[in-house]
Amino acid sequence: MDIAIVGGGIIGICAAAYLAEAGRDVTIFDRTGICEETSSGNAAAFAFSDVLPLAHKGMIRQLPKWLADPLGPLSIPPAYLPKLLPWLIRFWRAGAPEKYEASLAAQASMMKLAEAEWMGLLDRSGARRMLREDGSLELYESEAEFKASLPDWAARKRFDIGFSHVEGDALAALQPGLSPRFVKGTFVPGWKTVADPKLLGKAVWAYAETKGARFEKARIDHVEASQHGATLTLADGTTRQARHLVIAAGAWSHQLARDLGDRIPLETERGYNTTLPNSAFDVKRMLIFSGHGFVITPLETGLRVGGAVELGGIKRPPNYNRSKALLRKAQNFLPGLDPSGGREWMGFRPSLPDSLPVIGRARQGDSIVYAFGHGHLGLTQAAATARLIRDLVLGQNTALDLSAFSPNRFR
């Protein structure tokens, strides 16, 4: 093969589209299908204004309070803590003040590229109709919570991200029916969402297929560099040869990177949601409850209530009590919300300690490139990542300086 991509999520789909547009022969391998796992159930946000790495968004400060609640915004199963500890230490270090400016600048440059590339890809693939430009509304339950958010908004303002703080009638107009417990909000008019993330992924893939991209349903158990590219070993023991290999397998990517001598500290944020019927409540735009770690998004296919973080790896069974806890909070925050008829879901967010993805070449060969670790921002940054992967595979100058995203930064 010319180019093999491991991973049929939104990153792999977009990479396939960009490479196929360039006239390359592309095959995606995935164990289940195109956009069938984590990329199918996210919150549907193009979060281009979300430039602050998690380690800098007050998470460290709130860790003790959140961890005290087993169904709160962040949960770590006690038995998993010893395995997780090295990642947590790296996460804590990533929040150091001296790393703030570099991380912020890298994320902001990635977001600027992401917005431009997504708008172009939506037009070329005929998926622009799926874009919703209603903005987002972040909500605060106290004056103290609002004031604590102001430094983060000041940081966003430096990168020309528009927003306005609202209260009273202005807040009620943006979202009628809110609980009176919310005293203020911040409206971000440039925030965008999509009609449904799974449908968008399928639409981009359909476009990639028109350019010649192909799909093979298979689990890749092992990869290695070869003289002329890479060798992929499938679960059935057969092998495939490729001149170029892109690893975009989400939460499983670091296992394949280890085959190539790269030890990348990827951890899995298990996210939960419930998608209710559209009739559950008239939500006007994405609502963000940052103090509780979840959002509510109106989709074409329902009302999605989801978020929170469970750092528990990829082997533990889902704990859907977390979905139910989010739904109970949503009922308190939107009196009159009908919680019946929902579909529960859990997905794996592949996250790195500094909240930046890995985009770059493997240690063992220039023909193998990585594209994973986007955390909460996989959908948002997929088109930008695809542009960068195309640049690398074609041997062109990349649209961004990739040093901040290097696979070698964790050595």
Q: Tell me about the biggest sheet?
A: 9 strands, mixed
Number of domains: 2
Q: Name the assembly state.
A: single chain
CATH superfamily of the largest domain: D-Amino Acid Oxidase, subunit A, domain 2
Structural class: alpha/beta
What would CATH call the architecture of the largest domain?
2-Layer Sandwich
- Large-scale geometry: globular
Mean pLDDT: 94
Query: What share of residues is helical?
Result: 25-40%
- Count of DSSP E strands? 21
Compute the separation of the termini in Å.
32 Å
Task: Specify the number of helices.
Answer: 10
- CATH class of the largest domain reads Alpha Beta
InterPro entries: FAD-dep_OxRdtase, FAD/NAD-bd_sf
GO molecular function: oxidoreductase activity
Keywords: Oxidoreductase
Protein name: Amino acid dehydrogenase
Descriptive report:
This protein is α/β, with parallel strands linked by helices and 411 residues long. It folds into two domains: 3-41 and 199-265 and 355-410, FAD/NAD(P)-binding domain; 53-95 and 132-192 and 267-351, D-Amino Acid Oxidase, Chain A, domain 2, CATH 3.30.9.10. Helices cover 33% and strands 26% of the residues. It has helices at residues 10-21, 59-67, 81-94, 100-125, 143-157, 168-174, 197-210, 253-259, 321-333, 378-394, and strands spanning 3-6, 26-30, 45-46, 74-75, 131-132, 136-140, 164-166, 184-188, 192-194, 214-217, 220-226, 229-234, 239-242, 244-247, 267-276, 286-289, 294-299, 302-311, 343-351, 358-362, 365-372. β20 (358-362) and β21 (365-372) form a beta hairpin. The chain is globular, with a radius of gyration of 21 Å. The two termini are 32 Å apart.
